[in-house]
């Protein structure tokens, strides 16, 4: 029944360095590793195996006639990547954009049709290792988000982290919307560049 925190170079407290897939791999690639993040004071987590990299919130291009949980699209090394506003996806009020706001790039879908998708969160915390025997079933009531979005509750000392089921949060229905976003995106988007912040939107004061 072990439970350990794994150190990683994650962008905490407004740190400007984007985390690459290689950096995440250095923290571990075990199926019991989870990337934890904050969204409106709650702690959530995605399985690390689906997380590709983490970016500071920058220039996001709006796409008309999309669901309100689609924040827009970014140009990630020449690829159009839709960005989901996770708060809106959960039916919550959209969070204020601050210097800690991040976009987590995750990979979703079946093996023959994998897609990269950005997920907008308030801040990224750390990578944790949580053993299976430390994960409890999702509660039947009392959660702020839909019960089917929750894979389980990871026990952390006297607290819990909500482990999300990304295949439910970003379901097959949303995958169709993702492809539509790509099709409707402008032909030329400003490219995300880790070495040049000139194209990023100025975040609000946190």
From TrEMBL:
SUPFAM superfamilies: CheW-like (SSF50341)
Acidic residues composition-biased segments: 191-200
Occurrences of domain CheW-like (ranges): 31-175
InterPro entries the record matches: CheW (IPR039315), CheW-like_dom_sf (IPR036061), CheW-lke_dom (IPR002545)
Localization annotation: Cytoplasm
Region of interest (Disordered), ranges: 183-206
One Pfam family here: CheW
Keyword field: Chemotaxis, Cytoplasm
rRNA processing listed as a keyword: no
SMART domains in the cross-refs: CheW
CDD domains: CheW
A single GO BP: signal transduction
Record has Cytoplasm as a keyword: yes
UniProt-listed Gene3D superfamilies: CheA-289, Domain 4, SH3 Domains
Gene Ontology, cellular component aspect: cytosol
Name the record gives this protein: Chemotaxis protein CheW
Taxonomic source organism: Wenzhouxiangella limi
């Amino acid at each position: 029944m072990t439970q350990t925190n794994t150190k990683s170079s994650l962008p905490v407290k407004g740190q400007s360095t984007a985390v690459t897939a290689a950096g995440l791999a250095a923290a571990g690639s075990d199926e019991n590793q989870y990337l934890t993040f904050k969204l409106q004071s709650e702690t959530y987590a995605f399985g690390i195996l689906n997380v590709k990299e983490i970016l500071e919130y920058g220039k996001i291009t709006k796409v008309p006639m999309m669901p309100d949980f689609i924040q827009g699209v970014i140009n990630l090394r020449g690829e159009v990547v839709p960005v989901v506003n996770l708060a809106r996806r959960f039916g919550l009020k959209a969070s204020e954009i601050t210097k800690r706001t991040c976009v987590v790039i995750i990979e979703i879908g079946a093996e023959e049709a994998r897609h990269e998708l950005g997920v907008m969160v308030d801040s990224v915390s750390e990578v944790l290792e949580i053993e299976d025997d430390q994960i409890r079933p999702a509660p039947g009531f009392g959660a702020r988000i839909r019960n089917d979005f929750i894979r389980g509750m990871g026990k952390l000392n006297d607290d819990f982290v909500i482990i999300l089921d990304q295949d439910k949060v970003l379901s097959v229905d949303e995958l169709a919307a993702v492809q539509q976003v790509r099709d409707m995106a402008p032909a030329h988007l400003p490219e995300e560049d880790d070495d040049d912040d000139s194209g990023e939107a100025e975040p609000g004061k946190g």
